[in-house]
Write a structure and sequence with these properties.
This protein has about 450 residues and is α/β, with parallel strands linked by helices. The protein is built from 19 helices and 11 strands. Helix content is about 45%, strand content about 15%. Keywords: Signal.
Length: about 450
């Protein structure tokens, strides 16, 4: 798989596409490929394609609608599929498929209203998460302005607005908490979250906290520039961030202070700042992206442990998978870290499609957005799902039998829609076993681009 294409996802790799260069990642121009749709067939022990499709269809759970405003009865099979898990990964084949976003909105509503999930973590920066959390608690601000890259879509804004409506209803005692899991950058509001709390509650610590964050806050908003700093300077920033975490911890312990909801968020924010400074210390790409996904997972675990309830983890299929789909670009992913930490308490739901188009960047530097067409690969799992005669369906990959059971174990091409359009480059990862990477699959036969304004 062409390295440049694999570098262009949402999350950290969009923001790091230039910064990663300093960490040793190649940026050769995309080459033309004659591999699209011609991957060598996988072995299926002579099982016919028709029998696999029939086996899948007989065990799939048909979903009636994509509309989040419609009843959720067709999602009831998820209750048994998820069981008592405290963490659910919500994957997406692209960062720009309207129908996938709509279906994920429906699943979020079901997880909240029927299964008690109240922490919503998304592949979005921590600072934007703070603003979005304030919005769903108070109604302050415009959620579209707090969603970045390919996420400020009509579909996702509608979901955030539903969260606000849910939280504003006094009948719902346990409120949804919105968490930005990502570390693409830290804007000034992140540092202010800590500084303002210290100013009000522990003013004696203010000079040291402000001094510790002064230089760091001036550079953390531009990751590409931050990566150009020397290791010595980056280590100084890390030591200063660690100092603030310790100051807060020591002060609250000495005062025998029980963490309020506000202090929980402040301490969490100080730790996120520390994690950012740790993430960008390595000079090699694999170590950097491992830390990136490790912290995605740790921030999700923080939400569950500190805020209570159960936690949803929304991101690209690559990040929420239980293992590595593309080793060269993501040698270890958030879903794998979660699986190691919490075992069967984590359930990974992938979502994918067979045909259509999706929103992606035409140019990252100019922030131009367009639509890319999903390529056909007749040997892919996506193509096989397309043989099922349902417009959309759920499939529990752990509980299949017959031809479908063997088929989901096989390694085969799997759609992986990036966040930038690079012509003549395959959109599929080879050798992906669905059962190894996901517990549940949501498939939507045809998808269209998400609704987002171009040239934002």
């Amino acid at each position: 798989m062409n390295k440049r294409r694999k570098m262009i996802y949402g999350g950290v790799t969009v923001m790091l596409s230039a910064a990663i260069l300093t960490a040793g990642c190649s940026t050769k121009p995309a080459e033309k490929s004659d591999q699209i749709g011609t991957t060598q067939p996988v072995e299926t022990a002579q099982i016919s394609q028709n029998s696999i499709a029939k086996s899948l269809e007989s065990q799939a759970k048909q979903l009636k609608t994509l509309d989040p405003k419609q009843p959720l009865d067709d999602l009831k099979p998820l209750k048994d599929m998820i069981g008592n898990a405290n963490y659910v990964g919500l994957g997406e084949a692209t960062h720009g498929s309207s129908e996938i976003f709509m279906m994920k909105h429906r699943i979020v509503k079901y997880l909240v209203t029927e299964l008690g999930f109240t922490n919503f973590g998304i592949e979005e920066d921590w600072g934007n998460g703070l603003k979005l959390n304030e919005y769903i608690q108070t109604g302050k601000g415009d959620p579209r302005e707090f969603l970045k890259l390919l996420y400020p879509t009509d579909e996702i804004v509608a979901m955030v607005e539903w969260m606000r409506e849910y939280n504003s209803d006094p009948v719902n005692k346990k409120k949804i908490q919105f968490v930005g899991l990502d570390l693409k950058m830290l804007d000034q509001s992140v540092f202010d979250k800590v500084i303002n709390y210290v100013k009000e509650h522990h003013p004696e610590l203010l000079p040291e906290v402000e001094q510790s964050y002064k230089e760091l806050s001036s550079v953390a908003g531009n990751l590409q520039e931050y990566m150009k700093q020397t290791t010595e300077v980056k280590e100084k920033h890390m030591a200063n961030a660690q100092k603030v975490v310790k100051l807060l911890e020591d002060k609250t312990k000495s005062n025998k202070e029980t963490d309020s909801h506000e202090l929980t968020w402040v301490k969490g924010t100080a730790t996120v700042i520390e994690n950012f400074t740790k993430m960008v210390i390595p000079a090699d790409y694999p170590s950097l992206v491992k830390l990136h996904d490790q912290y995605l997972a740790e921030h999700a675990i923080w939400a569950q442990e500190k805020l209570g309830g159960k936690t949803m983890v929304w991101g690209h299929n690559i990040h929420i998978a239980k293992g590595v789909i593309t080793e060269k670009m993501y040698p270890k992913v958030a879903g794998e870290f979660l699986k190691e930490r919490v075992g069967n308490q984590y359930v990974a739901i992938g979502s994918t499609t067979t045909e259509g188009k999706f929103t992606a960047f035409i140019s990252l530097s100019e922030n131009k957005i367009g639509a890319d067409t999903i390529q056909m690969n007749k040997n892919s799992s996506n193509h096989m799902f397309g043989q099922v005669h349902y417009d959309q369906f759920l499939l529990d990959l752990r509980k299949l039998n017959g031809a479908a059971q063997q088929w989901v174990k096989e390694k085969q091409p799997f759609l992986d829609g990036g966040a930038q359009i690079i012509p003549n480059t395959p959109q599929y990862d080879d050798d992906v076993s669905l059962q190894e990477q996901f517990d549940i699959m949501v498939h939507i036969q045809k998808t269209t681009p998400s609704h987002i304004k171009c040239n934002r």
